[in-house]
Amino acid sequence: MSLLRNTVSALALALAVTAGSPQAKAEAWDIAKAAEPYKGTELHVIFLDRPGYRAIIKLLPEFEKATGIKINYEIVPYENTREKEVLNFNSQGDLSIALVDLVWIGEFAENGWIQPIDKFAGDASITDPNLNLKGFFPLLLDAFGTWGGVTYGLPFDNYSGLLFYNKCMLKDAGFDKPPQTWDELMNVYAPKLTNPEKKQYGYALQSLRGETQSADSFMRFLWPFGGSLLDKSFHSNLMSKESQEGLANRQKLMKDMPPGIVSWDHAEAVNGLAQGQVAMITEWSAFYPTLTDPKTSKIGDCLGVAPEPAGPAGRLPALGGFSLAVASQAPEAEQKAAWIFIQWATSEAIAKSYVEAGGVSGRMAVYDDPQVKATYTFVEPMVASWQKGVPEFRPRFPAWPAISEIIAEFGSKMMLGQLSVEEGSKEIGTRMETILQKEGYYDGKKKLLQ
Predict the structure, then answer these.
(1) Which segment of the chain is annotated as a signal peptide (predicted)?
(2) In the CATH hierarchy, which fold is given to the domain comprising 3-159+320-387?
(3) Which of 48, 76, 256, 263 could form a disulfide linkage to 202, CB 3.0–4.6 angstroms apart?
(4) C-alpha closest to that of 159 among 377, 311, 385, 366
């Protein structure tokens, strides 16, 4: 069945056109009726230039045709998204839907920029009777959409860290399977797969200064080694033996990574694997469509996907993603229209079409579909990581953006050899604790994780 036919089928279910279908539930949602009072409403949202957003954009025409609600989206680089949204909220701008990263939920909720879903979910005229919050992976709903026990957003564009690798390069080097541990990756696989003369490297870790450095590079080497950014008293834990071991191993891997890796963002890391320059990357599950698209990738059947390697503390993969939430600044009617869109975009009804278009749904049911499991090799390791995962992989508290900037600066200097691992850790710890002191994290009034 073509993508178009799948899309139309799923949307028809969402619009109650196929109420007699075996897939339909007891009470199908007449989304057209729900949207009738808001026909002509224009909603504004920020999207990223990533597969999950391109996927929902493909499906938008059917939503707009059925509801009469127009979605105006602006595509913004991830590194600029939070700042752009915060400026919009502070100036009472035009955003009607908030794109909320895992680590922004505390800041957005505590500033009152987003609405709890309870404001809308009790209104049957605008709420899908099959909303089914229990249908989301609990880890995702909690980490991406919930703060202080209150749910603000629904999971959208969800990621698990995975090991993507070139099976052919590994086979040529004498390996018949991917590394199971970080120790294997660092000390056995990466050195053997690196050949600077051929401009081929064993591993690439996206480490561009900014959130990519702090969250995707620096933090990735703490948890599997038993380390953490903070201890239970909110003080730096970077000087612990475990944290130091993880960061030292990141530094050790530099010799098997491409020159200039500190300037590589996600696109460069994915492209390095796609073009045969790099043998292994630890990247978000959302980049699977890019790596399987012959227009953007040469890797073809050589692509392998596995869980992130295990460290001394076990297999603790990165967790990332976003939720969509109703912006408090929007007029009342616009908020209700936004709620209708958010439910649709994250619904079980379109989950399969969304996945087939290149997105990663937060709905559990779609990954039980035999066709989905057979077609997308990333599903099994991704779902396994979501069954466990670490929601505190990056602290979700409001102080994170300021701390992220510090980690980005000194984490980059550590990788470049401008500071030792110990020196950089001490700088980050001192500056981080100064911020937390000012924000009241040492007087017992604030919690690290909600």
Answers:
(1) 1-26
(2) D-Maltodextrin-Binding Protein; domain 2 (3.40.190)
(3) 256
(4) 385
